Amino acid sequence: MAAGSPELTIVLNHPAAESYARLIGERFPQVRALVAPGTDRLEQYIEEADALLAFRFPVEVFDKAKRLRWFQCTGAGVDSLFPIRDRVGHITVTNARGIHGDVIADYVMAGVTMLHWDFRRFLREQADREWNPRFVAPLADKTLGVIGLGSIGATIARRAKSAGMTVVGSKRDVSAPVEGVDELFRSDALEDLLPLCDFVVLALPATPETVGLIGAAEIARIRSDAFLINIARGNIVVEAELIKALQTGAIAGAMLDVFEREPLPKDSPLWDMPNVIATPHVSGAPTNYTERMFPIFADNIERFLKGQALKNVVDLARGY
Ligand code: GLV
Questions:
Q1: pTM score of the predicted model
Q2: Do domains 9-98+287-306 and 101-278 have the same CATH topology?
Q3: Residue 198 C-alpha to ligand 1 middle, in angstroms?
Q4: Ligand 1 pocket, residue 284 CB under 6 Å
Q5: Residue 76 CA, ligand 1 centroid: distance in Å
Q6: Is a pLDDT exceeding 80 seen at residue 1?
Q7: Domain coordinates in residue numbering, the chain
Q8: Ligand 1 contacts CB of residue 253 (under 6 A)
Q9: Are the C-beta atoms of 34 and 9 separated by less than 8 Å?
Q10: 206 lines ligand 1 (CB under 6 A)
């Protein structure tokens, strides 16, 4: 390579592209960072990119990304790549796993508490100045099931255990125990796991195999006094079936951070169901995200420059 020419060109296709470019500039003068926060300039820059940083892979410019060898996803889920999954074998895909677990576990435990105590009802009663005491079981009497025990799911499991709950969970590989999980199920044994749970938490990646995983049959295995919490992807659940179950009382309620369509359409019945807490895909978004994520990215830039194996590589066939 000619003296002075960059050793690596990275396109930053992200709303925080300027901040990432500044951090790269401070640490890696030999790296050329091309800032393309939106679609402007992306088509032109992507042709020069050895690497790409983005939350969602911009599949519309994939055909122009002839030099691309590395995609660093700023989030956990790499489902944006699935439409071109069979064509990206030459690209190393890495994600930001490790920075989401704590804040998502905060969200899940808040949801568990709010749903279990029916805080929506307390808030309605407060607004009406109604004094309506009732008994509530301690969480230690309850069972929480985590579907998907990756980095995020395992953090949720530990947190639920520390709240005194019985914790069950499922994952593909059950050969080793998972800290905090009392009973481990294989991912194809959901029908046995679901009826045990007072809270079912979805923490698995969306892959062609998991899309629609929670349909009518699985929802029917969730008890009528149990709650569903989804912090994964909306399309893992067949939303129409979930809405039906929530409307008929087939399940007790839900806390949903993700939806089949986002933003959640204004006319979705989920907005105003009394047994639903709906939030705008926020559970895995800790403050100072760029600064929390950058050490993973920087470590990988260093590795890429040295020709070493990258960290947080995602196996696209598994989705994590
Ligand atoms: C957010 O949903 C992520 O995948 O990081």
A1: 0.96
A2: yes
A3: 25
A4: yes
A5: 5
A6: no
A7: 9-98+287-306, 101-278
A8: no
A9: yes
A10: no
* CATH architecture, range 101-278: 3-Layer(aba) Sandwich (3.40)
Residue 91 backbone zone (phi > 0: left; psi -120 to 50: alpha; other: beta): beta
In which band, very low, low, confident or very high, does the pLDDT at 2 lie, cut at 50, 70 and 90?
very low
**May I ask the CATH class of domain 9-98+287-306?**
alpha beta
Confidence band, pLDDT 50/70/90 cuts, at residue 297? very high
Atom number in ligand 1 closest to CA 78: 4
Which pLDDT does position 141 carry in this prediction?
Answer: 98
Alpha helices in the chain (DSSP H): 17-27, 42-46, 101-117, 119-127, 151-162, 190-193, 216-221, 239-248, 289-306
Q: From the candidates 262, 291, 302, 318, which is the catalytic residue?
A: 262
In angstroms, the CA 99 to CA 286 distance is 8
Residue 75 Cβ < 6 Å to ligand 1: yes
The ligand 1 atom at the shortest distance from the C-alpha of residue 75 is 5
Q: Which atom of ligand 1 lies closest to the CA of 95?
A: 5
Q: Is the CB of 77 under 6 A from ligand 1?
A: yes
Query: pLDDT tens, 261-291?
Result: 999 999 999 999 999 999 999 999 999 999 9
pLDDT score of 4: 62
Check residue 207 and give its pLDDT: 93
Q: Kindly write down the DSSP assignment for every residue of 45-82, as one continuous string.
A: HHTT-SEEEESS--GGGGGG-TT--EEEESSS--GGGG
> 262 an active-site residue?
yes
Q: What is the pLDDT of residue 319?
A: 84
